């Protein structure tokens, strides 16, 4: 989905969370518990959570820098409290909250295609993820293809025409 949004506009950019712990490093800014604690003490953490034996954090300095540069940060989140924290920080007029989901059987298929070594742990996280109650959009990614989903999301952006990147025509 992130790649499909980037094809619409180069302003879209995955927010690189801070991460402490094992697992994938691509797309993260690897950090330490001490560095996260220093950010916490300075009230610079917007949201943090633990999953898969790792700590993930959304920090105010990076989020603010991306916004100041004119980027549109994409945050992949599944915790309603975290979404609320980001919306409070950024402001509701600058956020588009999208609930992307798919059927459980599709989630299993995708996890196996990824050759994930932790299918069971990731499926438990899928099962534990609550429904987002008031999204701007709710999209079943099992039936809606990424380019269409990205166009729907882009069309919700308050300034989506400002950079000349118009959403592609929607199928009838």
- Form type: globular
The portion of residues forming beta strands comes to 15-25%
What percent of the residues sit in helical stretches (DSSP H or I)? 25-40%
Radius of gyration: 17 Å
Find the count of extended strands (DSSP E, 2+ residues).
Answer: 8
User: What can be said about the biggest beta sheet?
Assistant: 4 strands, mixed
Q: From the helix content, strand content and strand pairing, which structural class follows?
A: alpha/beta
Q: What is the overall pLDDT average? A: 87
**What is the N-to-C succession of helices and strands?**
HEEEHEEHEHEHHEH
Q: Tags for this entry?
A:
alpha/beta, 39% helix, disordered C terminus, four-stranded mixed beta sheet, 7 helices, 8 strands, two-stranded parallel ribbon, 172 residues, globular
What does this structure look like?
- This protein is of the alpha/beta class and 172 residues long.
- The chain is 39% helix and 19% strand.
- The protein is built from 7 helices and 8 strands, in the order H-E-E-E-H-E-E-H-E-H-E-H-H-E-H.
- It has helices spanning 2-8, 33-41, 60-68, 80-90, 104-113, 119-128, 146-156; strands at residues 12-14, 18-20, 29-30, 45-51, 54-59, 72-74, 98-101, 137-140.
- The strands form 3 sheets. A 4-stranded mixed beta sheet has the order 3-2-5-4.
- Strand 4 (45-51) and strand 5 form a beta hairpin.
- Helix 5 runs antiparallel to helix 6.
- The protein is globular, with a radius of gyration of 17 Å.
- Mean pLDDT is 87; it is low at 161-172.
């Amino acid at each position: 989905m992130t790649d499909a949004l980037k094809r619409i506009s180069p302003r879209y950019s995955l927010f690189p969370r801070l991460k402490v712990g094992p697992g994938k490093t691509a797309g993260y800014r690897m950090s330490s518990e001490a560095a996260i604690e220093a950010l916490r003490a300075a009230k610079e953490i917007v949201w943090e959570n633990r999953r898969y034996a790792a700590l993930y954090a959304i920090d105010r300095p990076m989020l603010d820098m991306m916004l100041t540069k004119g980027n549109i940060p994409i945050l992949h989140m599944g915790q309603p409290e975290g979404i609320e924290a980001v919306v409070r920080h950024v402001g509701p007029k600058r956020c588009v909250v999208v609930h992307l989901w798919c059927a459980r059987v599709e989630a299993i298929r995708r996890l196996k295609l990824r050759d994930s070594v932790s299918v069971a742990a990731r499926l438990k996280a899928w099962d534990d993820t609550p429904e987002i109650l008031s999204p701007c959009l709710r999209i079943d990614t099992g039936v809606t293809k990424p380019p269409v989903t990205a166009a729907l999301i882009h069309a919700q952006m308050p300034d989506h025409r400002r950079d000349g990147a118009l959403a592609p025509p929607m199928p009838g």
